[in-house]
Amino acid sequence: MEEPLAQALTTVTKRYLYGISKSLLHLSIDRYHYVLVLIDAHQEALSQKGLSELLHIDKSYFVSMLDYLGEKGYIIREKNPNDRREQRIKLTLKARKDLPVIRRAIEELNNLSLRNINDADKIIFAQVLRNIQDNLLDIVPKPIS
Asked: pTM of the prediction?
């Protein structure tokens, strides 16, 4: 019986996330590092709802993620002055200080993950991942909760 593609991807994901957490042990957070990178990459313009949709994460679970990051001093929530129902997520100075370290850890782990893979194969790999995503576009998963 052939192994499901998801099994191989899950194994890689678990090892990758463990590697990130291990390399960032000195920070006061042990998870959700990439959420901070995304908030920064979108210049703090995304709402709480927008971020949860971008990550395909259930809103209630995402709230607990943001609660964790807020308790650790990495984010604050601000009401949108144009729509009081909407909350924007802002990074704190602590998050801004740690972001270069987080980005460097991601870059180093990406480099380790792709070590011994030539540039042409890296391009093919990225294209294959995009093709797989496109092939499964009609399958809309329930958000992670």
From this structure: 0.85
Beta strands in the chain (DSSP E): 75-80, 83-91
> Residue 86's pLDDT band (boundaries 50, 70, 90)?
confident
**Treating both helix axes as pointing N-terminal to C-terminal, what angle do 59-71 and 33-41 enclose, rounded to 10 degrees?**
100
| pLDDT score at 144 | 60
- Asked if 23 and 105 count as a contact pair (C-beta separation under 8 A), the reply is yes
Compute CA distances 100 → 20, 69, 106, 115, whole Å.
Answer: 14, 17, 10, 22
Q: How far, in whole angstroms, is CA 44 from its chain's centroid?
A: 15
C-alpha–C-alpha distance, residues 20 and 89, integer Å = 23
| Residue 78: strand pairing partners | 88
Q: How far apart are CA 2 and CA 19, in angstroms?
A: 28
* Both tokens assigned to 113: 């993950």
- The whole-angstrom separation of Cα 89 and Cα 74 is 10
